[in-house]
Write a structure and sequence with these properties.
By secondary structure, the chain is α/β, with parallel strands linked by helices. The chain has 27 helices and 10 strands. Helix 5 packs parallel to helix 15, helix 8 packs antiparallel against helix 9 and helix 11 runs parallel beside helix 13. The radius of gyration is 30 Å and the shape is globular.
């Protein structure tokens, strides 16, 4: 979600394609920085309506992130700003191309001057703040994310950290910089493509039309990709993808290009280039209404961007294309709103780190986030942003005699080199662990999510790093020997270490068939219509594999099931196929991030808490759900090929359950076990495998 206000205003020669008030310098001033001084100096040359859009957009995003009522769809502010930046920057590039003075180097330095200094200050501040409140492993991850933000590739970094076990969004102070990376990547390819296509044309008038056609094709392809990804991408990668978002700034860019082109003497020959029909107060009012409606309405962010993203893009395009200067009596002309537009980039940069670190501070001290705290965070964001605008943004933008391109690049390079050195030192020391009390480190270790074969765990799109169809565990595969398959989601995969150890000791060769957020079920077109298609296909293929082969003869099932019927239907199917079923029963539903809460309790106590147990109430132990599973499987109670594994017997005793025992957390989040002490469940699976093998051993002993 990026807010990039536009940089300098180099003088331009007159262009024959830009007659009247839109020629030369006047046209470029439309694409200039949102400065009140400019507005007063040049009258209606400065687009007050666009500056008001900036103000509303950043207010919407802050309101959404700060969870303020009335901003349920506030995240659309980023989409609107992408339209604005596409309109302004494409207009500047094409204007420079028309006048014959476009320079990619000059354009890049202009963008760097505008974006980089304030970004560096925010990143440095987050690194300093993280020193005091972030655990070593998390701090290393934060430093890598900071590095990706400084190099404008953080959209890729956060996309890669967007899996099932990724850290929550409110623990990533620089998460919002993904949009700056998307924007900067647009700044790279848009002028390169535009200038390349421009050179292919023979005359100025035809060149602009050729650029428009090229951008239209690219926008159409991007929109098609966006719509396809919104339906097929279970991981939500399109949210961070320039491919899925390029159509948004290109929409604004096409509008700017059409405005330039229509002023050529033969624009009437190409009716679709004529945007004059947009320039009415009615269109502007409709655009504002659509924009405001998207902010208030709770749009579904989970499939964003998608078809509904067209709505805020349309609203923004209508406002920009209407070119309706704000009247003297308009609320949008008020100084406060216009200044908010001026400060919008700094506000956007600072609001999210302030929110993340404030939440961390309040949580450590046991405070809840109420309206008062939110108001203080908002006021703090505004105050720091004003200071950033005045003492960081403006001096570097305006004092160009001092901040020459050479000095800007040199200072940026030196800062980057220092940061690289700090990151190297951080990795050499494993995140500077001595800066925090030693008793907090076990909580960090509990968050480890790696299992013996993490490369075999499929993501939500059913892809994995390992090349083999099913990875192996346990003993070596031997013809005639029994084999097993672990089938399920992360709630099955979390037990891979004790299962593998137990399989090895019992001479069992195992296969891994686990997929993120994909519980095992017997696929049904009606009952499972709401499940992701990759998950349904994975379950169908796994069932076919199990049923069509003699081995594996043992199926270990585990999952985050929602109802007992799914469990019993799948168990019935497998048992009727002659398979032995080892069913892992649900463990505990803690309902909060255990390592985080453990950290908070120890910080408040000022000492280590080596043991933490709670009452085994029905909600925690999921008593009714577990009882229903047992009841539905009751008809198989005498079947030796069904074994129930109950992990609760390891962590619960005498009506109490241990969340922390012997200085180690039993869970890594709200429900998954910690891999630090996962081996404590080995005895359960050892007994289950011995039980599963008993009929086979007895049959082998029986003489013919």
């Amino acid at each position: 979600m990026s807010y990039s206000l536009d940089g300098g205003q180099p003088q331009m020669r007159q262009s024959p394609l830009l007659p009247g008030r839109f020629s030369g310098r006047n046209f470029l001033s439309i694409f200039g920085p949102p400065s009140p001084a400019t507005e007063h100096a040049k009258g209606d040359a400065f687009r007050l309506d666009i500056n008001a859009m900036r103000a509303l957009s950043v207010a919407a995003v802050v309101g959404y992130h700060f969870q303020i009522p009335g901003f349920a769809g506030g995240f659309v502010g980023v989409d609107v700003f992408l339209v604005i930046t596409g309109y302004l920057m494409t207009g500047k590039v094409l204007t420079d191309l028309v006048s014959g003075r476009f320079s990619f180097r000059h354009f890049s330095i202009m963008r760097m001057r505008r974006i980089y200094p304030a970004l560096v200050v925010v990143i440095a501040s987050s690194v300093v703040a993280g020193w005091f409140v972030t655990l070593p492993r998390e701090y290393l991850k934060h430093l890598l994310q900071a590095l990706s933000a400084l190099t404008f590739v953080s959209n890729f970094a956060f996309d890669n950290d967007n899996g099932y076990f990724a850290m929550a969004a409110h623990t990533k102070p620089l998460l919002h910089t993904w949009s700056l990376s998307v924007e900067w990547q647009f700044y790279i390819w848009m002028p390169l493509v535009g200038s390349l296509v421009w050179r292919l044309g023979s005359a100025s008038k035809s060149r602009i039309s050729t650029v428009i056609i090229a951008f239209q094709v690219m926008a159409a392809l991007s929109l098609a990709w966006c719509l396809w990804e919104s339906h097929s991408d279970a991981m939500g990668s399109s949210f961070f993808s320039l491919r899925a978002r390029a159509w948004e700034p290109l929409t604004g860019g096409l509008l700017a290009a059409a405005e330039i082109r229509r002023r050529s003497e033969d624009a009437w020959k190409i009716p679709w280039l004529n945007t004059r029909w947009l320039e009415t107060p009615t269109i502007a009012a409709a655009g504002w209404a659509l924009f405001a409606g998207c902010i208030v309405y709770p749009l579904p962010e989970s499939r964003w961007p998608g078809a509904l993203t067209i709505l805020p893009i349309l609203g923004a395009t209508m406002i920009v294309g209407a070119r309706q200067w704000i009247g003297e009596a308009s609320l949008l002309r008020m100084s406060g709103i216009q200044r908010l537009g001026d400060w919008s980039y700094s506000i956007y940069l600072w609001h999210w780190p302030i929110w993340v670190f404030a939440l961390s501070w309040l949580s450590l001290r046991g405070y809840s986030v109420d309206a008062t705290q939110k108001m203080l965070m908002a006021l703090g964001t505004l105050a720091i942003s004003i200071a950033s605008y005045r003492y960081v943004e403006q001096p570097i933008r305006m004092r160009r005699d001092f901040w020459t391109p050479r000095r800007l690049l040199t200072s940026s390079g030196a800062t980057f080199a220092l940061f690289l050195g700090f990151i190297a030192l951080a990795f050499l020391t494993n995140g500077f662990p001595r800066r925090l009390p030693d008793y907090l480190l076990p909580a960090e270790m509990a968050r480890r999510t790696d299992t013996p074969r993490d490369d075999c765990f499929r993501n939500s799109n059913s892809t994995k790093k390992a090349t083999e169809t099913y990875c192996s565990f346990g003993s070596e595969e031997v013809t005639g020997k029994p084999s097993a398959i672990l089938w399920g989601d992360s709630f099955a995969n979390q037990y891979l270490e004790p299962i593998s150890s137990a399989a090895l000791s019992n001479g069992i060769h195992g296969l891994i068939a686990t997929e993120s957020a994909c519980r095992p079920f017997l696929d049904d077109p009606v009952r499972n219509s709401a499940d992701q298609q990759p998950c349904r296909e994975f379950n169908r293929s796994t069932l076919d594999f199990v049923q069509n082969h003699m081995e594996p003869s043992i199926v270990v099932l585990g999952g985050n099931w929602g109802n007992a019927l799914e469990v019993s239907l799948l168990a019935d199917k497998l048992l009727s196929s002659g398979k032995t079923v080892v069913l892992i029963m649900p463990l505990l539903n803690i309902g909060f991030d255990l390592p985080q809460r453990w950290i908070e309790n120890q910080v408040r106590a000022g000492k280590a808490i080596g043991e933490w147990k709670v009452d085994a109430d029905p909600s925690l132990t999921m008593r009714s759900f577990r009882a229903e599973i047992v009841q539905r499987l009751h008809r198989h109670r005498d079947n030796p090929r069904l074994a129930l594994v109950d992990p609760q017997s390891v962590v619960c005793e005498r009506s109490q359950c241990y969340l922390v025992r012997n200085g180690q957390a039993n869970f890594r989040d709200t429900a998954h076990i910690s891999n630090v002490n996962a081996i404590q469940y080995r005895g359960l699976f050892d007994a289950a495998f011995r039980s599963a093998l008993r009929p086979r051993i007895e049959s082998e002993k029986t003489p013919d």
